[in-house]
Design goal:
The structure is a single chain. With 151 residues, the chain is of the alpha+beta class. Strands 1-2-3-5-4 form a five-stranded mixed beta barrel. Strand 4 and strand 5 form a beta hairpin. The radius of gyration is 24 Å and the shape is rod-shaped. It starts with a helix and ends in a 6-residue tail after the last strand.
């Protein structure tokens, strides 16, 4: 048990590594900020091997600070890069099918395997018609019939 208390830094570093590698799957910078907290906990564990509460406090403080300060800045910079398109931006121009009649007021479409609330650019689109996404307005897809030109 004494060995574990003196070598708790191994746990912290392992946790930081797992969180860092898992970040590669999400690319959202959340797990990276948590990994920095675990790294801080590991560094405190090296300096103060028997003081678990201090290690946890350091990990929490660093993780929260990174989430609040560094993550928004990183996200803003990444989203400002040339050529960046969010998944919503990539929906524009995507084909789909009208699940219900789509009017300028309401309707439902299926695009890329997802069901979206929709409005038509103009007129009413009958159920079953192939559509294309013109733009995204919040959580609503603005669509038009794929076989017709834009009005």
């Amino acid at each position: 048990m004494a060995w574990l208390a003196e070598h708790l830094w191994v746990f912290w570093m392992g946790l930081a590594a797992v969180l860092g590698v898992t970040e590669l799957l999400t690319l959202d910078f959340t797990l990276l900020m948590l990994a920095s907290g675990a790294l801080a906990g590991g560094l405190v564990a090296l300096a103060f091997p028997g003081v678990l509460w201090l290690q946890i406090a350091a990990a929490v403080v660093v993780a929260v600070a990174m989430l609040a300060l560094a993550r928004p800045t990183l996200l803003r910079r990444v989203r400002a890069l040339p050529g960046y398109r969010s998944s919503v931006d990539k929906m524009i121009g995507s084909p789909g099918v009208a699940l219900t009649d789509v009017s300028s007021g309401a309707g439902e479409v299926k695009v890329a395997g997802e069901v979206w609330s929709a409005r038509s650019v103009e007129g009413t689109i009958p159920s079953g018609t192939e559509i294309e996404v013109y733009k995204i307005d919040g959580a609503i897809a603005i669509v038009y019939p794929r076989n017709l030109a834009l009005p």
